[in-house]
Amino acid sequence: MQIADKYSPREIESKWYDYWIDRRLFHSEPDERQPYTIVIPPPNVTGMLHMGHMLNNTLQDVLVRRARMSGRNACWVPGMDHASIATEAKVVAMLRERGIEKSQLTREEFLRYAWEWKEQYGGVILRQLRKLGASCDWERTCFTMDEARTESVLRVFCDLYDKGKIYRGVRMVNWDPAAQTALSDEEVIFKESHGKLYYLRYKVEGTEKHIIVATTRPETILGDTALCVNPEDPRYADLPADARVIVPLVGRSIPVIRDTYVDIEFGTGALKVTPAHDVNDYMLGEKYGLETIDIFNDDGTINDKVGMYVGEDRFDVRRRIEGDLAEAGLLEKTEEYTNNVGYSERTGVAIEPKLSMQWFLSMQELAEPATRAVMEDTIRFVPEKYKNTYRHWMENIKDWCISRQLWWGQRIPAWYLPKGGYVVAPTEEEALAKAREKAGDQSLRLSDLRQDDDVLDTWFSSWLWPISVFDGIRRPDNEEVKYYYPTDDLVTGPDIIFFWVARMIMAGYEYRGEEPFRNVYFTGIVRDKIGRKMSKQLGNSPDPLDLIDKYGADGVRMAMLISSSAGNDVMFDEALCEQGRNFGNKIWNAYRLVGGWAVDAAAAQSENDRLAVEWFGAALDRSLRQIADDFGSYRISEAFKEAYRLFWDDFSGLYLEMVKPAYGSPTDPATMAATRAFFDALMRLLHPFMPFVTEEIWQDLAPRAEGESICTAAMPEAGAVKEALLARFELAKEAISSVRNVRNQKQLPQKEALALRVVVDENYPAEYAPVMMKMANLSAIEPTVEKDPTAAAFLVKTTQYFVPMAGRIDVEAERKKLADELAYCEGFLASVMKKLSNERFVQSAPEKVVANERAKQADAEAKIAALREQLAALDK
Predict the structure, then answer these.
(1) How far from chain centre, in Å, is Cα 39?
(2) Which domain holds residue 799?
(3) Per-residue pLDDT tens for 519-551?
(4) What is the spatial distance between Cα 566 and Cα 491, in angstroms, rounded to a whole number?
(5) What is the pLDDT of residues 670-692, one digit of tens each?
(6) Residue 42: inside a domain, yes or no?
(7) Is there a single domain that holds both residue 628 and residue 737?
(8) Angle subtended at Cα 279 by Cα 278 and Cα 285, rounded to the nearest 5 degrees
(9) Are residues 798 and 816 in the same domain?
(10) Distances from the Cα of 632 to the Cαs of 33, 340, 410, in angstroms?
């Protein structure tokens, strides 16, 4: 036996990971086997491993490793997302540290710096995942901006444009002033914000009257182009049809329009209309042909269109304008006010509704087959509750703003002609050919065309991920995409159900005519033990690599698995990692125990050992079936808990104790062979959950050929479950436990063999008498037909057992103990009888309550009779 005396995760984990990689055990190629495919939710190239990644990737690795051991051709494709907004921000920050502003660079110069940053810092998280034991096919690592993925994205853009699904136009978009780009609706998070409601005085032109308007954003008066009231509001019935008002401070004369859109009950019933900075105002502006005045620069400062507060930040202006309005007598009052404000999911700043020329993808037609796929369970959601969330969003889907005002990303393949118009093409050569045809001018050169400056939303790349990682866009009939697609399982968080999951399903039906995956397992949020979401800001999120260094990857994986179930938040406690490490120690020490047993080749197997082997084989079969059922229902946490219980309780706690030879004595060959076979099966069963310690032990169990690994060993198969055998053993187990309890209660030495008497009936497991004798340290098990009032008695189902106490107890101490217990029971019975003798209580109390009291009476009377019988026996 070569295994070390002490379990040291640090020493074995890097050794075995290198072994797996060197022998390409995670690599997959199409063959005759059934494939099992998972594509990793590509982490941002800027990302670092956090607890959410730990949970997500542990679950994926468990599924992949189990599939690989079940004979499937397992392929787990890793990769990274180029993360346009986050990466550009990182590069801009890097440049500033070098004294360079983005505005000083050309696009090409900036991109050179961006790729330099990506090569130096990007992809750290993928290297970190190796520490966790992730069995990805690293040879297949993809990047959403590599050549194959970029060409795929551009082809899809052109295809959708040609189909009339992509269009360009000025629309109200969500503008992120920090990133200075448009965002899709899904990238806006609404939060409750505390602010003020400002009541402003708009003077009615030609009169001394004022109309009071309530607003939460007084700075936007700079862009007001109308004031709107409800035509049915009696407060404004006397206003002439051509009434106009003066915008406070600005002095602009604007018309009063009448529209039922205005809620009479809200505020003063009058609404300021700023078409450039509110989506509803924009619709009113289009309806009434109002002027549109955009007052903001891209960074959220005031521009020079109005000539006031130029260059000042929007929130600074809000604070300043309040004082200016009050000084001018144009502020009626302010009130504290709470409302929902949209914030950028990327940068955390408040978004600005902004009119902007953008590219959009029409979603309605794409959404229809994708909605049916989930609602009809072609794609299965786990847990199922997310189907309704998905359906609601899909049925109310809006067009997707797919353009971003950035340089890092796939540049939109649209080229503008010198005399107006544009063409869309995947390459410069095709664009030039199309431009010449459209302009009717064969002398046009590429330098005459101007490519669109915007890039595509990062999600426009990742929505193709299950197809593009197998090059299924560029080469739709290639062998790999035909073999690996559709993928099997997707493991992801519910927070990107719209960003990514729904869009991948749409892309799957549009470009492959079928679902991209068969099952979606939604993880929960990792929280600390008091329920707070883990975050760097709160300081409650440990560094996963520190945890792995301290407890080992197997220990941390166990902590994630034992505390998670699909869709439910994970209450993470570092103590669980310690529990995981302790389990690794338990496995290690159990194996060392077995390895220390000598074997007598001539010894015959005892009946006790034969029964133990037979029982644990049945227990193993039962657990294998239960675990397979759990995996079939994606109860991965429950599957692990059952495997944990099987090893800790049944194998280590019971079986090894049952077959352990007496000190200094050998075991027999049959029992040792069976025990090592059980160890082999248990290591294979546990391997997907705890890959490192199981590989170390499995390699030591038997001579292995070069390159052989538990990773590719077969998962043990369950035989027929022997329920009757297991039920009979449970009776024996309960009797053993009861004898041990008697020892503890009566303070009897553990080494002293006890006699046990039993009133034999159908629930006495006579066949397990040898096991009971050894495990309870019994000198004999004697059938009896008489009760022994002096004995310590216990009941297992209907079977009565007695441990004779003659000569083992202090009679006077026992008499005092019984007398005290009798006095207590008599007092308890008296209190019950007092209640039951109260006719009013019996008639008015609920029937269930009265029945409960009568049951207490019967129990107390039976206990009193037994105690009196025991006292009488002591007096003889």
Answers:
(1) 16
(2) 725-803
(3) 999 998 888 777 787 766 667 778 889 999 999
(4) 10
(5) 999 999 999 999 999 999 999 99
(6) no
(7) no
(8) 85
(9) no
(10) 20, 42, 40
